[in-house]
Amino acid sequence: MANQFLIKETMTVMRGLMPAEITALENGTYDGVQLLGYYQKGDTPAPIIYYYVDPLTDPDPGPEDGGSVIVTGSIKLVHKFKGFVDISYYGHQANTDFSPALNIILKKFGQVDLGRREVFCKNIQTVIDGSKIKNGTLKFNGGIDNRILTVNNSNIEVTDIVFDGNNKQPSFSLVFVADNCENLVINKTEFKNLTATVSGGNPSNNAYGLMLSPYGVRNFTIHNCVFKDIRKYNNTAVSGTPTVGQGFTGGIFLYNGSEPTTPTSNSSNGVIRECIFENIVNILDDDLDFNTYSGYLDADGIRFYSVAGGVNYFDITISDCIFRNISKRAVKLSGSGFCRGIKIYNLTVYADAMQYPMVSAIKLDADTILDGLKFYASTLADRCSIFLQMQGNYNLQVRNVYANYVDGAIQIAPVNTESIRDLKFENITIESYSNYFITQGGPTVASQKRINFNNCVALPAKDLVDKYAVRLGSSADLTCGVSFKNCRIDGANIALSGTDISIDGLDITIDNINYIGNTTAGGSILSTGLSSSVNNYANVSIVNTNINILNVNAAFLTSNRSFLLTRGKGYAIRNLRLKVSDNIATNVSHLDIMGENVAVDNFLYDGTSSLRIGVQDYIKSSCFTNLIRTTRSKMVPKTFVVCGNTSNANVSFANIYDMLVMDSPVMSFNSGTKYIVNGLSHNSSNSAPILDSSLTVPVSKNAVIKFN
């Protein structure tokens, strides 16, 4: 009779068919066996039918595999699964290694449904394209030479899976995606509970949730995934002697374990979006200094690795991800052009009760876009040490960035001497920096071209003592090539050493009785142009700028440093305001200008000290118009304009206004040099408002104008 089936409640019973039942299957009385459960009736999602395999007419399905092919007596029964295979049909049991069965399912059918179960396993492999794994937990029960899953094929999908490291240490990572596995999708998946205590070789020095080869993993998508509770010990008590290079830990690592020597264009590309990275840490000894712990730390949310001999450009986008308590960096790109092309959007980084401050939030390479980054430290102790670290030399765009507590905000630190060029920073806000806002660091000195800062705000931590806000350029007077537009940078020195500098709309405020300045940054609150010589062309423009000196320590003035220092040929200064509070000593000049082809127009000065022109070095072929001192201070004033070098020549002044009542000269010139003054209005009671008997100086005939 057709379509008649034996009915058995368990796999054990089905494997023990009676001889008469086997004969009935062989002679066609029954087409097969309906199985109601594996270990007991109803423990599988639904009953399934195993068909009799006729050895004379049917192809051999292969040996017994525990789920699809069953040997009972002298015959074989087969069920051909379609679509996802629920692991209960292969006899999954809790707390038992299920790796062999998983590998059989993936090899035969390619699609596994874990049925929301926890499955102990190790060394699972994809074998065919289009494999899919979903719905459950894969819990690692291997050792240091194992991992949970290796992806060897294209079009693989992993959905709603938890890769649980079981607080063990795998080889490199819990999951590894090999070269040339295209169209990978990992969605709604967790990578967690990895604890690494062994180091000493490349596989054991690295411990990551997911490792993607940088070669040929094209069009991958990592979406809505969580990477958490991943830790590696690099301390004395657990791992022995701490060593640089033995803390590599993280969520995602672009690496395949090799050191390539042949350049290739076969780069991986894809998207990492809406993922969470949490509690990814190195455990170190306590009480280490920065130089020590920053070397021992290597726990990153996302880490790229590339060298000169391999891939150096990745079309990869990272967007809308959250990072919380990551020891070293949220995202780390290899530097100096070996890891280019990354686009990063809308990341948020939190730091709360860290063992040591994060070394940097993001380390960037060339040809990179960062648009949208927020960093929140719970306290100053959780601040980021180097917030944005730039090791790439060129083509960086950084926009819409915020941080509350950092030591240093932006470090431009290339590892070679190639020109630093085309870096754009826009809408950067740093609420509290403890060390610097921008610095050029690293082991090399390079010229700079087209580095632009637009709409940036940097505010200092309370009571900075010996710090700088900005230090760019070099003592070698290379091209500085920097511009600031509509920026507010408070709290410390700004030193721009070199040529091609543009400032349009810069506000600087110093209000800290403890501040003593920083000589390595040039000394002056704002110094621009050449570091020493005035004989070379500087090409500097400063317009629409306000400098407010409300409080500094008296020690700042002991080195005869001014608040604004300019040096070199080719200066244009327009709409500049300098306010210096009365409580600041007047024993030094508040401004120093020297060089050639200098044009100053609309300078407003609220202070009681001097503008020194051509005193430290010569001033030539320059003009100063509309210089106004507005203070009404009762303190003993200084001469407004002092020119004191015998090499000065061809300098003109027009429309000089001094509202301060005093009995000192308004302007003082060194004997023997050539100046023209056309229009001086003042309140000086001194009989010689312009001090230099050897000069022919046309003075305004309105001898004294009283300012009300």
3D architecture notes:
By secondary structure, the chain is mostly beta strands. Helices cover 5% and strands 50% of the residues. It contains six helices and 46 strands. It has a 41-stranded parallel sheet that branches. A five-stranded mixed sheet has the order 1-2-3-5-4. Helix 3 links the parallel strand 6 and strand 7.
Outline the low-pLDDT stretches. Answer: 696-708
Percentage of β-strand residues: over 45%
Number of helices: 6
How large is the radius of gyration?
36 Å
Number of strand segments = 46
The best one-word shape is: rod-shaped
Helical content, roughly? under 10%
- Biggest sheet features: 41 strands, parallel
The overall average pLDDT, rounded, is 90
- Cα-to-Cα separation, first versus last residue: 120 Å
Structural class: mainly beta
Short description, anyone?
The chain has 708 residues and is mostly beta strands.
Write the layout of secondary structure elements.
Elements: E1 5-8, H1 11-15, H2 19-26, E2 32-35, E3 48-52, E4 69-72, E5 75-78, E6 85-86, H3 99-108, E7 111-121, E8 124-125, E9 132-140, E10 149-151, E11 157-168, E12 173-177, E13 185-187, E14 190-196, H4 202-205, E15 206-212, E16 218-223, E17 226-233, H5 236-239, E18 248-254, E19 269-273, E20 276-283, H6 290-296, E21 298-304, E22 315-319, E23 322-326, E24 329-332, E25 343-351, E26 362-364, E27 368-377, E28 384-390, E29 394-412, E30 420-440, E31 448-460, E32 468-473, E33 479-489, E34 493-497, E35 499-511, E36 526-529, E37 537-551, E38 564-580, E39 591-606, E40 611-613, E41 619-629, E42 641-643, E43 649-662, E44 667-669, E45 675-684, E46 690-691
